[in-house]
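Objective 1.3, modelling of assemblies. Example input:
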Amino acid sequence: MLTTIVKDTRLKEKTCKQFLPDKSGHFGKYGGKFVPETLMPALEQLEKEYLKAKEDPKFNEELKYYLEQYVGRPSPLYYAKRLTEKLSGAKIYLKREDLNHTGAHKINNTMGQVLLAIRMGKERIIAETGAGQHGVATATAAAMFGMSCDVYMGEEDIRRQSLNVFKMKLLGTNVIPVKTGSRTLKDATNEALRDWMSSVMNTHYIIGSVVGPHPYPMMVRDFQIVIGQEVKEQMQKAEGQLPDYIIACVGGGSNAIGVFYPFIEDEDVKLIGVEAGGLGFDVGQHAASLSRGEKGILHGSLSYVLQDDDGQTSQVHSISAGLDYPGVGPEHSYLKDTGRAEYVSVTDDEAVDAFNLCTRLEGIIPALEASHAIAYTVKFAPTIDKDKIIVINISGSGDKDSFEVAKKMGIEL
Amino acid sequence: MNRIDAKFNELRERNESAFIPFITAGDPSLDATRKLIVEFYRKGSDMIELGVPYSDPIADGPVIQSSYYRALSGGVKLSDILELVRDVRKKTEIPIVSMISQSILFKNGCDNFVKSAVKAGFDGATIPDLPVEEAEEIMEAGKKEGFKIICFIAPTTTSHRMELIVKKSQGFLYYISVVGITGVRSELSAGITENIQNIKKLTNLPVALGFGISTPEQARMAGKVADGVIVGSAIMREIEKYSSQGDDVLVDKVGKFVGKLVNSTKNRN
Ligand SMILES: Cc1ncc(COP(=O)(O)O)c(C=O)c1O
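Predicted structure (tokens):
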């Protein structure tokens, strides 16, 4: 059963006293709107329309309908018996976002935003994508509603994620290769923003994570909190209690905030975000913005960013295209500073090992992104009591990563 | 008086529009930038907009992006650019406005940036990714030092926002002539004259027009309707064209191009 978006936000307002983000889009000092004036009216319109839609039962019903009938929600919360036994520590549950239509949590957000774009009378959709999961989710929603769609994707990611590129094309989306900078997610985001600068009159930009200028971090969060709401109900049914730990990978931070958010006031539930430690902590070798970054501005908001002492964005690396991003959503920066969530990182190799472990033990091939959350659990679970419960958010399926993992194993497909 | 105000007062008396070339600091080299600024001044430019290269400039098209990229590959730092302006100040009192991303500004700290910029000889800044709502701190820092924060108005700007912006902007207003990013375009958008007149109803601040102005003919038209004409990508494209031919050729060729734009802006030909 889905709870509506409306209800959950009110809950937050009441119990937390402080409703975040504030009116100007700040989570504490983080967030805000750092974009050219050309885009400001569009952001104002988007915020207004979103806040209206969110209070509109018709919008919520429609979204709920598509999430249930099209996306396949609720997604199961599965007790990973063999993984639990293997690690012989806490009891481990997997939230199966990989079972959503298109294979990741990203579609929760794109369904919401496409419905919103239709309400706003926009005819064209654009998006950026890293792993291609958000691109495919956007292309899918666009196809289903008959909208024209362009997706920006870095050349390096096009190489790493050729399967998703092909899917987007099948779905009728135009995939635009981005050749600037590091040719990954950051540069695709730049290009999408530039496109929007010229097309803002008839185009809606669907950002794929809780990043970007206000209202995106708030809106994308709201569309993803269905994950955590379900976990709460499912856990109650399965164990009659709340989990002790929730572990999720953090790229921009949308799957993590989605599963964390409904538990924020349940202070006994520990929230752990896992970032991409890549090849190590030298500059350019990882993408752990919260663990290693500093306060800075990237893509329209103030948050932790990996940058040099002049404010130039640093190169980043992760084996997982979806985590290969030098910034992070502003609400995570806020949760880090307030201590409500903890952020750690694991390396490429640890993630690949966890990918294999989960596949062998549970018959579930997780996305490399989600494998980061599993990898941290592999280290963490044995250190805690058997009566504790961990929920890992399996943000997506690893189908898309087959080629990359095969390459890493020295196998040619 | 701040050099920007003095310049616009002087031009107002002569009933002339300002010509404002944009140039990226450090492309192809800091030395070339210094020579080019002095040459632009000699050719009759009224003000310089000096671009501080940034790795992720969302308001900029491919021409300026790649000039930023070349400058950063050459290792240019903000401290080098301050040094450059200090050097230029030995040769000319032309007003110099920096174009700087809020990412760089934030990292350096508003007060710190304004103080060092003023000390180096900058007169103000345009911050393309900083809307007025977030500009409080830099505006305050600027006021203390007489450093002008120039705000943008876009064709998409609503009348409610326009009122807010004209109240905050200092020195002049930067009217973005197109819905989109910087770049070379073949035509000026329709409706510019009307939009500038609307701004003028709200403020006495000079209004400069930029984004997409690339030919002498466009500069002439822009000069008729606006108090200032800003040309960026077209100049950076010329710089790119001649950058491998040595500084003398570069300065000569690009200087001539700018000279033509100056004359067109002032309707002298
Ligand atoms: C399966 C999967 N998980 C996680 C991510 C990272 O994004 P976020 O941190 O916003 O959840 C992505 C992004 O592409 C993804 O495809």
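The CA atoms of residues 307 and 313 of chain A lie 4 Å apart.
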